[in-house]
Design goal:
This protein has about 220 residues and is an all-alpha fold. The chain has one domain. It has eight helices and no strands. The longest helix is centred in the middle third of the chain and has 30 residues. It is globular, with a radius of gyration of 25 Å.
Length: about 220
């Protein structure tokens, strides 16, 4: 008799209205947490598209100037779009930070990725480009190739932590840089096409995929 009673185990309890309400609140909380976790990896692809357009325009323009020996115009063509791009990125980062603080949810992942881009593109890219130009010593690499390689590295890191499309974009830029290295006469045109495509195409795909998934949480 004792064994029979032990095997029966506790009888299932039927929850009343209050218990069902608690379960509904728990599900609502879990859904809210999932939404916030998903939104922390919001792609914010507009800076990528902007830099892709800058590369598509600036690289071929520099190729045209160098081919026609108009060297004094190179920095006049190069500096304004780069300055605009950097200002746009800093403004975007400030707005994103304010938006996240207002929502009460600060994305640690997005901060890490932002610092990757700041360290790689701003610190390394600008530093070696300015030093090379000031001292006429490009041992660190031609600025055009240097920025293309840095874009490739930064995109690849972003792809590892965020979406694989960015990784593919970084690989595309790397392949373009290799081709440009061996086809020097059209190197800047190749770099412009590869860098522009490597930034813009993944950005469009990532944004589209994010919008599709976002509808699932509405």
């Amino acid at each position: 008799m004792e064994n029979e009673q032990l095997n029966r185990g506790p009888k299932p309890q039927h929850k009343g209205p209050e218990g069902q309400k608690v379960d509904a609140d728990d599900l609502k909380f879990v859904r809210s947490a999932i939404e916030k976790t998903y939104k922390q990896v919001s792609p914010d692809t507009h800076p990528m598209i902007m830099w892709g357009i800058i590369c598509l325009i600036t690289y071929p323009a520099i190729h045209f100037l160098v081919k026609n020996q108009l060297f004094k115009w190179v920095w006049a063509v190069f500096l304004p779009p780069v300055a605009i791009g950097l200002c746009y990125i800093f403004v975007t980062l400030i707005l994103i930070n304010k938006r996240e603080k207002k929502a009460g949810f600060v994305s640690h992942l997005k901060r890490q990725i932002s610092w990757v881009w700041v360290v790689i593109m701003v610190m390394h890219g600008l530093t070696w480009s300015i030093l090379g130009t000031a001292f006429n010593n490009y041992c660190a690499g031609d600025p055009g190739f240097l920025f293309a390689i840095l874009f490739s590295i930064a995109l690849s890191i972003t792809g590892i932590f965020h979406s694989k499309e960015w990784l593919y974009g970084g690989m595309l830029i790397f392949v373009g840089a290799l081709l440009a290295f061996f086809i020097k006469d059209y190197g800047y045109i190749i770099l412009g096409l590869a860098t522009g495509a490597g930034l813009i195409i993944p950005a469009i795909i990532v944004q589209r995929n994010y919008r599709k998934k976002e509808k699932c949480y509405e």
